[in-house]
Amino acid sequence: MTKLLKNSWALFTGYFVLMVAHGFQGNLLGVRSVIEEFNYLTTGAIMSGYFVGYFAGANTIPKLVGKVGHIRVFAAFASMASLSILIHAVFVNPVVWTFARFITGFSIVGIFIVMESWLNDRANNRTRGQLLSIYMFITLIGLSLGTLLLNFSSPEKYEPFILISLLLSSALIPILLTKRKAPKFKKLGFIDIKGLYKTSPLGTVSMFCTGIIHSALFTLGAVYAASMNFTIFEISILLFSVTVSGGIFQWPIGYYSDNTDRRIIIIFCTFFAAIFAFLAITASGTSLENMYLATNVGIDKIMFFIYVVLYAGMAIPIFTLNLAYVNDYIPKEKFVAAGGGMQIIFGMGTLIGPFLCSLLMNKFGTNGFFIHLLFFHLVIGVFGLYRITKRPYEDNPESTFTPLPRNITPLGIELDPATGTDISSPEKK
Q1: H helix or E strand, kind and range, residue 212
Q2: 78 lies in which domain range?
Q3: Closest to 278 in 3D by CA, of 147, 373, 162
Q4: How far is 81 from 18, CA to CA, in rounded Å?
Q5: What is the predicted pLDDT for the residue at 323?
Q6: Are 429 and 348 in contact (CB under 8 A)?
């Protein structure tokens, strides 16, 4: 393993720097959009632009990697991502920002695909799980540190945008200087949405709703906090806590899901997430006049932070629970193909999540953010209760819960040692 880490230091270093920039930029734009007094609908459309680009890139970039190679694709898209963040600083316009977010999403998924396919090429059955753990750890730490960079300078200034551009550009350096040859790109297989729904209706519906939830949580969370008069420091601490909590809670939740009916854990998590979302509303008050928690640290503010952290701990692991649950009903050789299909479903949810959330915030005020989260958690929970009455519990010893970052691609799912290395399409089986 030491030799593998030594040979992969360039990948992990570049990826870590990229994650710091990635964690910084989305939240910076959320805060800046409040300062610029963009309305909620406009902000939601801007944030959705990222996921449209991400979804489009996920379906087109693999072919590009196969034609021109990993290093060229990584360099090109890291440069595009660096350029797109500067566009935000120069042109403060909602239409331009939406287009720039599209470029960012398209570029970032290209970098993810290169990173994960490269790691898979270097992994074997003895090191695959360890590499996935390191990948998860770097993702979590990078995103968390990125949120703290909100304190670097005022979002109204151009310096934060330049810093993000510098980080994205510097992520290129270790990759371009590595002596290791790039791997040959493997063709990914997919299971269509209809087939996934037939295999697992709950897993499919839950993953779609999870995409709607997570995209709103991670793009409009900063907008919510800024609109509620939190200071920049408090916003960064809140977002940092959300990211870390989501990572920490994955381990105990995954352990229990592997030892019982996974549907029970999904329902438990989603209903408790709904409860904590409701409690966050009660702690924040029902209007901006009741929510000046930034001016004094009282019991309401403390409880609000606690509720949001507990919410994240329940909500974020649902992504991986969905993957594990679908795997409970398919053979091992189709795990990665199913993971690719589930990512498409998750991506469809992310396309509309921020915009739907912004509609509710426009209708009900700032706390429409938590109303959005609460509603879709209830949808998952109610549908889960219904499905329990329709299908008996089946144990699949080959399927296990593996903590995964929410931005993982099908190639990253292949790092799970339970999937092996076969990612050919199910039609070839």
Answers
A1: helix 201-227
A2: 2-179+187-428
A3: 373
A4: 10
A5: 83
A6: no
pLDDT at 370: 95
Cα 253 to Cα 229, 246, 249, 317, 415, distances in angstroms = 33, 11, 6, 7, 20
Q: What is the pLDDT of residue 2?
A: 66
* Of 429, 422, 415, the residue nearest 15 (C-alpha): 415
Residue type at 185 in one-letter notation: F
Nearest one of 250, 292, 295, 283 to 269, comparing CA atoms:
250
Which amino acid, 56? A
User: How much is the pLDDT for 405?
Assistant: 72
Residue closest to 20 by CA, chosen among 236, 220, 251: 236
> The CATH number of the domain where 293 resides is what?
1.20.1250.20
pLDDT tens digit string along 93-152?
A: 999 999 999 999 998 888 887 777 777 777 666 666 677 778 888 888 888 899 999 988
Q: Tokens for 373?
A: 């989260």
The total number of structural domains that make up the chain: 1
pLDDT at 137: 84
Name the pTM for this structure: 0.84
Rounded Cα distance, 398 and 418, in Å: 7
Report the alpha-carbon distance of residue 393 to residue 390 in Å, rounded: 10
Buried b vs exposed e over 266-290: b needs ≥16 C-beta within 10 Å?
bbbbbbbbbbbbbbbbebbbeeeee
Q: Can you read off the two tokens belonging to residue 143?
A: 């995103």
Q: Under a CB-based contact definition with an 8 Å cutoff, are residues 220 and 43 in contact?
A: yes
Q: Within the chain, which residues score under 50 in pLDDT?
A: 287-297, 421-429
Q: State whether residue 92 is helix, strand or coil.
A: coil
